[in-house]
Design a protein that fits this description.
This protein is α/β, with parallel strands linked by helices. It has four helices and six strands. The chain has one domain: Rossmann fold, CATH 3.40.50. 23% of the residues lie in helices and 22% in strands. The longest helix is centred in the C-terminal third of the chain and has 14 residues.
Length: 189
């Protein structure tokens, strides 16, 4: 059974000091780095917000539900991986959201233009673990799309950070209701 790890949006703008910082983002970046240093996955990929002009996704008066401050703009430091995310053994990086809002890594493509679903299937992946930022947005959407695409999906909840920590319970219940497993990382504490 081929297993993949999807590292979701561990970018500077989503960590402390970034334009859309999530509390605990830098700590999560470091913990994911520890996982990557001694992982047991067959395949490891990452996703990135990769915005050019995503329309109403950016707002001067964001509601922090559907609209947000400018973040992860192509060519900026904020769009880069957080420095604590080391090592980076990614076989591919999937960029999403250039000209529209995109929360799921399955909405992205790699540098060769391949979609994540196709790329994983070409490597006979049957199960995916998802970690990263943010639990209640991009991690949630990526895990739900993985399950919809027929992958056995798990969220490594201790390797995520949420925009709204008080709503994580609702997010985790929605994931569980869709058949996504929730567990702690088996590789690090």
């Amino acid at each position: 059974m081929t297993r993949a790890l999807i590292v979701t949006d561990v970018q500077n703008d989503f960590c402390e000091g970034g334009s859309l910082a999530v509390a605990g983002g830098a700590e999560v970046a470091g913990r994911i780095g520890a996982l990557l240093a001694h992982h047991g996955y067959d395949v490891v990929v990452a996703t990135k917000d990769h915005h050019i002009d995503p329309g109403s996704h950016f707002s001067e008066q964001p509601d922090y539900v559907d609209s947000w401050p400018r973040h992860c703009v192509v060519g900026t430091v904020g769009a880069e991986f957080h420095p604590a995310l080391q090592p980076r053994p990614f076989e591919a990086v999937f960029h999403k959201g250039e000209f529209e809002p995109a929360y799921s890594g399955f909405q992205g493509t790699n540098d060769e233009g391949h979609a994540l679903t196709t790329w994983l299937r070409d490597r006979d992946v049957v199960s995916v673990d998802v970690c990263g930022i943010a639990t209640d947005y991009c991690v949630r959407s990526t895990a739900l799309d993985a399950a919809r695409a027929g992958f056995a999906a798990t969220v490594l909840v201790d390797l995520t950070a949420a925009v709204a920590p008080d709503r994580v319970g609702v997010t985790l219940q929605a994931l569980a209701d869709a058949g996504v497993r929730i567990q702690q990382s088996p590789y690090c504490s």
